Amino acid sequence: METVRTHTIVVEPEERGDYLVTVPALPGCFTQGRTLEECRERAAEAIEVHIAGLRADGEPIPEEVGTPQLLTVTVAASSLDRCRQRVTFGHGTCDREPDDRRW
User: Fold this and answer.
1) In angstroms, rounded to a whole number, what is the distance separating the alpha carbons of residues 101 and 76?
2) How far is it, in rounded angstroms, from Cα 95 to Cα 47?
3) Is there a domain that residue 90 lies in?
4) pTM of the model
5) Three-state DSSP class for 23?
């Protein structure tokens, strides 16, 4: 008997009007779609292919531990400007140190 799995998908609107779909429980599993229904269909396909790849490689299949939570965080614009400057001048990465509490 085949195991049935239920996965949470995250559907994010993109600038050009379609959606990016990610599967938090399966890092690296993503797709996109033009409508929410297409996102569901493509997510199911992407999950099946991703799990088949994990099985073929002898890797464990991650289980969804709980429902992912979407939270918002407010950051001062001046902090973002400093990070953008560092990204521009720091070769593509924000060079803030983990213990840097200035912003």
Assistant:
1) 13
2) 35
3) yes
4) 0.69
5) coil
